[in-house]
Design a protein that fits this description.
Blueprint (H helix, E strand, L loop, with lengths): L3 H4 L7 H35 L6 H21 L1 H4 L2 H23 L1 H10 L10 H5 L12
Length: 144
C-alpha cells in the first residue's frame, strides 16, 4: 500500500502538486473575474452618480476594456462562468461600498443622493447578463 502513491504517479508526475496548481490558477481566475465585475459595476455607478461629467466618456471606454478582459476569462474558465451570479453579488457589494466612500470624500451631495438611492443592503441595481455583460449597454448619466 505504501508504494501506491509512487505507482499512481505517471511518468514521475506529482498528481497532488498538479491538482494544487490547477486549484491555484482557478482561484486566481476567480479573483480576476470578481475584480473585472467590480470595475464594470463601479464605473457604471460612477456614470450614473458621480458629478464629474468630464470623466464619463473615460468611464464608458474603461467599461468596454473590462468587459473584453472578463469575456476572455469566462472563455478560459467555463466552470467560473457558471458561477457568475455569485461572483457578481460579491463584486456588487465591493463596488457599492467603494463608490460610497469615494463620493463621501469627493462629492458629499452626490454621496447623499447615492446613499438614498442605493442603501447598504440594496440588491444589485443592474442585471448581470442583460446589462453588465452586454457590450451594448451603458447606464444613463444623470440629467443636467
Amino acid at each position: 500500500m505504501r508504494a501506491w502513491p509512487e505507482l499512481l504517479r505517471p511518468n514521475g508526475l506529482d498528481v497532488k502538486e498538479i491538482a494544487e496548481e490547477i486549484e491555484s490558477a482557478r482561484t486566481s481566475d476567480r479573483r480576476a473575474i470578481i475584480s473585472y465585475l467590480r470595475l464594470i459595476i463601479l464605473h457604471a455607478l460612477k456614470i450614473e452618480f458621480h458629478p464629474a461629467a468630464a470623466s464619463r466618456l473615460h468611464w464608458m471606454v474603461e467599461i468596454g476594456g473590462f468587459r473584453a478582459e472578463l469575456g476572455r476569462l469566462f472563455e478560459d474558465s467555463p466552470s467560473l462562468f457558471a458561477q457568475r451570479d455569485a461572483l457578481f453579488l460579491k463584486a456588487w457589494q465591493d463596488a457599492r461600498r467603494e463608490l460610497g466612500r469615494a463620493l463621501a470624500l469627493e462629492a458629499p451631495e452626490a454621496a447623499r443622493h447615492f446613499a438614498a438611492a442605493i442603501g447598504p443592503d440594496a440588491p444589485p441595481r443592474y442585471e448581470l447578463d442583460r446589462q453588465i455583460l452586454n457590450e451594448d449597454w451603458l447606464p444613463a448619466p444623470p440629467a443636467p
